[in-house]
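Slide 14.
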Amino acid sequence: MDNQRDVRTAGRGAGRLAFIGSYAEPEGPGLYACRFDESDGSFTVLDQVTGLKNPTFLDLDAEGRKLYVLSEGEDAEGRKHGMASAYEFDPATGALRLLNREITVPSPTCHITLDRDGRSLMTASYHGGMIGLSPLLGDGRVGPVSDVRQHTGSSVLPLQSQARAHSVTVDRNNRYSIVCDLGLDRIFVYGLDLDAFRLVPHKEVAVAPGSGPRHFAFHPDGRHAYAIHELNGTISAFAYSEEDGELRELQIVPTLPAGFEGQNNCAEIAISPDGRYLYGSNRGHDSIVVYAIDPATGRLTYVEHVSTLGAHPRHFALTPDGRFLAVANRDTNELVTFRRDARSGRLSPAGPRLAVSKPVCIKFMP
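Slide 15: predicted structure.
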């Protein structure tokens, strides 16, 4: 079954390549290459891959035409491990070709990130409370893991009885990696040593008890950064020092409208390419919250909430030009596209929806 393909629509066409990861069993498709039509915001599947268990999160080396995908696997003794697969893709047709598959950390993983130079990939394990770094070989294949960092401790909620590393985000200078740990209510800063392929503990930042930091985004100015907290429905704004890797919390804002009392967990956070607006997703309220960013202070001002027109927006992504935002509504099995007004930051529905089973992650070709 490994790397089998069922091509629904192939060939050349106008638009931008996009890649989708999802929850899937190995016998079914879980990884998709699509053509994104920049005239109407629609997706067309070009290629799809089976043979992967839960290929949820992706990252992209656009220049090297490589796609990196996490999934679940087992070692020789049958113990669950994280896996990372490297694919080569054809930019004209979207066709995917497996290069290799390699074990990352000794626990299933939930997030994958390349460093800015494309020399290594980092993975985070929610269940194992750890992060790992794996070198990338000269031909783009994933090498054996070179460093694993185990977090320990707990926080105030039952879900936080252990460390739960949830994401890794690299700063624009490729000096530091930021790790959100939902279980510890802490954000870790690691120095990124690509000569030794190591993550060097540098600093830690405590956030509000019970908040559960999940994902993180740097502002294009390099001076500000933002974390979305899964458990208490908030976003933290930080001042960031690129020189010494220091985060200083400036502000905390809600992701939910006043008066909402239902169950909700936050998921993704992103900043528009022009740096003027921030977007975050709510699973439960099933919405995208929009905030304007003050260019001088980095502080946030509320703009609007927009329904994702589906359930459980696990992830979303802005197109590189900032004209569209695509949402992966996991529980209603579809991608929904919104147009983005550059002046106001507001979103409006656009384009037909793409039916895909349990989508989790979207990556656009830059």
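Speaker note: Confidence is low (pLDDT under 50) at residues 1-13.
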